[in-house]
Specification:
The protein is α/β, with parallel strands linked by helices and 355 residues long. It is built from eight helices and 17 strands. The strands form four sheets. Strands 5-2-1-6-7-9-10 form a seven-stranded mixed beta sheet. Strands 12, 13, 14, 15, 16 and 17 form a six-stranded antiparallel beta sheet that branches. It has a two-stranded antiparallel ribbon with strand order 3-4. Strand 12 and strand 13 form a beta hairpin. The longest helix is centred in the middle third of the chain and has 25 residues.
Length: 355
Amino acid sequence: MAASRPLRVVFMGSDELSCPFLAALADSPDMHVVAVITQPDRGKGRHLRVQPGPVKQLAQSHDIPVMTPIRVNSPIVMETLAGLGIDVIVVMAYGQFLGDLLLSLPPYGCINLHVSLLPRWRGATPIHHALLAGDTTTGVTAMMMDRGMDTGDILGQIKCAIEPNDTTGTIATRLAFQGAGLMIDVLRKLADGTCPRCPQDHSLATYAPKIHSAEESLDWTKSAVENERKIRAFSPRPGAATYIPGPPGKPGMRLKVMSAVVEDLPKTIGFALPGTLLEMDSQKGPLIAGGAGRALRLTMVRPEGGKLMSGGAFANGYRARTPIGIRFENLPAAPTAQKRPSPQGAMPETSGPSR
């Protein structure tokens, strides 16, 4: 590094995925993390006890000062950072947009680590969408942040193969540790003036919007290959699921599907309607017909109100209530909340300015 002192870094991150990046900065002799900014503490667990997030806990273990602003672009945050003499801000899975004043504050800029090979999969859930699309390669991009969403100049990239059994969880773990090394390398090059900047080709951009729990339903009219990708993409969160209807007059059962494999239809079956339960094998698990003439073997599931179990264990324990020939369905739509009528003569509520 050209500088005779360590680079003064502010790290912004909130997710578990952020932790290997912060750990690498804290352990690097030529980096000095002067502050960590993360999301405010939130209630967790059944009793919603307020607990610090993983990034805050890690920062405290390294005796790094922590800020948890509700709005990162607030004047108090700007004043605090301006007084720290920082060189660069590093952002990894933080969860808030940085405004123009904050982006222009550090001399070396604001660097974002994004878990895709930009410009492919800009947005909140790049790993999920890479799996859903059947991509065979992903990676990490170090990017100079600008006003757009993941549109800044590329400072460096690493590639990573997507293996057939990979899930969002396994890929995220691998990319976090590989990306931490990329981050340190880019910061050192920024400091000594040797870091290249490559503008993105915006015509090649694809987008990865946030995934909502309402999207977790498996659609049996789609191919078994597409549903198997969805199961891996939604693991560990939010999880893919299907619905097993109950007998007339009785409730059905929601079934989380944690892992599955694609198989050909049994030779004795020439055609089956999508979603039809074809087998309840006590060793291999249930086999369900999908679209496009193939089937999906459920190898790890979690029944509603039950525990995680193998597909074989599910076949043994739920055989009586899940007969061969029953058709698995999409999850029922969640009921919409009904607004309570206003008292007679009362004025309707209106939205005021945010504070």
